[in-house]
Amino acid sequence: MQLYETVNGEIKVRLLRDHQPNQAMLNEFQTAQFDCKMTKMELCGNRLHGYEVDEPACFLKVFLSLRNVTSDEIFIYKEDFQLSYDKKKFSFEAEDEFGVSGQFPNVIELDADETKEGCLVFLIPKGAAQILFTYHEYADEEDPGKTYRLRYVLK
Question: Which Gene3D superfamilies match (predicted)?
């Protein structure tokens, strides 16, 4: 996986060591309704699209390709994607849409066999060494669903 980092207006590219036991599924997972592939990540510093966060926080853009594998229209909810860092027990939802180019809306609609590409924006500490990207599938109130995980070492 490549991590793009903007430092003083210059974009640097780093290769990350990926934690994936099944190399055939590197950077992706498959649910019953859609395939999700993480194509890249970008550390954007503490300013993004006119917004600024206090140090030591920084913006992290996670670029995804989502493909509907069913013959029906599906809806994917942004809040089902979460990110945690440095083995913390809690995780964070992506930021609400605020005009970043390609940013996914709060509800992502996919027609049968449709693929959409875009990004989710998260806030993480600038010094974070590891991240865990998760998608939690909610089937209904009685079925807690599955959780899919992608782990990365940033430093």
Answer: 2.60.40.1240
Q: What is d(CA 91, CA 132) in angstroms, rounded to the nearest whole number?
A: 9
What is residue 113's three-state secondary structure? coil
d(CA 137, CA 146): 5
Tokens of 91: 């995780």
How far is residue 66's CA from residue 113's CA, in Å, rounded to a whole number?
A: 10
Q: Kindly report the three-state secondary structure assignment for every residue of 12-38.
A: EEEECEEECCCHHHCCEEECCCEEEEE
Question: Structurally, how many domains does the chain consist of?
Answer: 1
Chain Cα centroid distance, residue 96 = 13
Mean pLDDT split into 10-residue runs, the chain, 155 residues: 73 62 70 94 93 94 97 96 92 94 96 98 94 87 83 86
Q: Could you give phi then psi for residue 86, rounded to 5 degrees?
A: 50, 45
Residues with Cβ within 8 Å of 101's Cβ and at least 6 positions away in sequence, in order, are none
**Per-residue model confidence (pLDDT) at position 142:** 76
CA 50-56-62 angle, to 5 degrees, is 60
CATH of the domain at 13: 2.60.40.1240
Amino acid sitting at position 98:
F
